[in-house]
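Entry 14: structure prediction run for Triokinase/FMN cyclase. Input pasted below.
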Amino acid sequence: VSKKLVTTVSSCADDAVAGLVACNPGLRLLQGHRVVLRDDLQAIRGRVALLSGGGSGHEPAHAGYVGKGMLTGVVAGAVFASPSVGSVLAAIRAVAQAGAAGILLIVKNYTGDRLNFGMALERARAEGANVRMVVVGDDCAFATPGKAGRRGICGTILIHKVAGALAEAGASLDEIVEKVTAAAKAMGTLGLSLSPCSIPGSKPSFQLAEDEMELGLGIHGEAGVRRMKVLPADKAVETMLEHMTDPSNTSHLSLTPGSSVVLMVNNLGGLSCLELAIVAGAAVRGLESQGICIARALVGSFMTALEMAGVSLTLMLVDEELVGLIDAKTTAMAWPNIPAGPATTRREEVPAPMEGPRKPQDEPGAGPGTVRVERVLEQVCSTLLDIQDKLNELDRGAGDGDCGHTHARAAQAIREWMRSRPPPAAPAQLLSALADVLLEQMGGSSGVLYGLFLTAAARRLRGHSDSPAWADAMDAGIEAMQRYGGAAPGDRTMLDSLCAAAQALHALRSPGADPLQVLAAAVQSAEAAAEATRHMEAGAGRASYIRSSRLEQPDPGAVAVAAVLGAVLE
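Run finished. Output tokens:
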């Protein structure tokens, strides 16, 4: 049995509806029934009321579409089961007694829904109610639909919206029926799934192999039209659009260049939002390439099949009037709040901002000469490349095993940069330039941390390059890393080595201190601190999620810092 986060299997449909109503002040439950109604029923006096519904498990359909400008009420069945005649009739009576001028039932084309809503309609008419029913069948899956006809799927939501906007504008029952019937005929939907779904308390309804996807599934896990190997998103969307518009398919939608459509990209429940956005972009591109204008695009979870990892595409041919009805305001919580306008992949990009002018550096001859700088940097790069495998090995126990690769990437980037131009000799310029190289090329959090360190240190060296200034620069760099990185000495990170070295560099502030001796002491301190991280509990970074008993080696970041300082001394 598949895992489900429910309280009890038997109460899950009731609990879901109750949860929705609890969180939405515009909704009310009808006593004794799984029926959700608008809170302001008095507002429908003299207007047409719209009722819909069906099985649970398709959330946010249908209760998410109850609100001003959409549905007046919905009737929910158990999971994937039609609602009872008694509950549909109770909903009809509730809106009739509120003074509705007419009542329209919007029903998805499934035998159970047609029977139960149809029976309730006949009984309500016998009581004198003015009720009509529209059955929506928008599925494009089957080339030759059987006697049951096309299934009603996600396009039904667009019918809710069009009918709701017309009712809100005061249209008559006959006018609404005529307009939504025409809109429903100019609409098609097709689903594609990567996985099955399972009713709470049951096993999945079917199986798909790891490398398979199925085209044309129903929203209850009913069989589709064909299984195929998993395709990349753009090819999958191309296959869907071809099937939906193929003239040899009886249930196809005729699209011609210049046609205007509303596109709905619907998550069948278990697809990630990342995948959904990729599919949406591919659908817009595919339609644009055929000369179709996408007047509006709606992307989200509109009518799901529990946790099915899949997507459906709905296309509705529209004119200006229909677009206006789609754009009309609604308070229904599941209708997306998006700006009115067409979808296109050809949107002009915002131009990249110009870089601010760099301050000229007035430091001729300050700091070490360019040749010396090149020699030191080359030594640092060689060292990092030499210890690449060692750092990766150290990182495997606590991270993702790429610390060596990240530092090697930095070394290669610095070498490339030196080949392209001589490095500046002035310390502040040199550290700023290195920060830019590492931020752009190194990657990982290490790249940002080194970038922060070098940027803050460079600021401290502007106009100063005497020995005490280097001690100040080291402190400033560490302070910036701590402020944004959140680590402190003792947390088993690169900061342990850096802080130990900084402590030793404070000796540079003493008059007459020998910089080389001080640097040698700093390297020794950094190496000792790196080795000491072997016995520390990780307090920051990815390693902090690993039990300390598993971290029996020194921290790779601390080892890398000690190696860099050692290379500078050489």
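Notes: The CA atoms of residues 147 and 406 lie 63 Å apart. Will compare against the previous run tomorrow.
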